[in-house]
Amino acid sequence: MPTGGVFLHRKGRSLMSIVYFTLAAAILYLLSDWILDRVEVTAGRRFEHRSLVFFGILLTLSTTSFMLISYLTGNTQGG
User: Fold this and answer.
1) Predicted confidence band at 1 (pLDDT cuts at 50, 70, 90)?
2) Helices and strands (H, E) in the chain, number of each type
3) pTM
4) CA 36 to chain centre
5) In 3-state terms, what secondary structure has residue 4?
6) I want to staple 32 with a disulfide (CB 3.0 to 4.6 A). Which of 20, 47, 50, 58 is the partner?
7) What's the Cα-to-Cα distance from 77 to each of 8, 11, 13, rounded to whole Å?
8) Structural domain tally of the chain?
């Protein structure tokens, strides 16, 4: 039976990194929705392809944030 440390650190990813990514994803989802609402209010109309604009906002924020989290926690992709 493995010791407790094995469950906390698997393949270079700590349990806390998983928590950080999950928390960031939830916050970014809500932030993207808020940004889209603000942009639509500023434009004075609902966008025809609203889900595509939402996806673009979410993709931009998540890519940037996840790269920053990976850098700060010392996680690298690959290898």
Assistant:
1) very low
2) 3, 2
3) 0.73
4) 17
5) helix
6) 58
7) 18, 11, 10
8) 1
d(CA 77, CA 12): 10
Answer whether 65's CB lies under 8 Å from 71's CB. no
Identify the CA nearest to 27 among candidates 62, 75, 68, 69: 62
Question: Is residue 78 one of the residues assigned to a domain?
Answer: no
Quote the tokens at residue 49: 């392809």
Round to whole Å and give the CA distance between 24 and 65.
Answer: 8
Distance CA(17)–CA(35), nearest Å, equals 26
- The 10s digit of each residue's pLDDT in 26-71 is 999 999 999 999 999 999 999 999 999 999 999 999 999 999 988 8
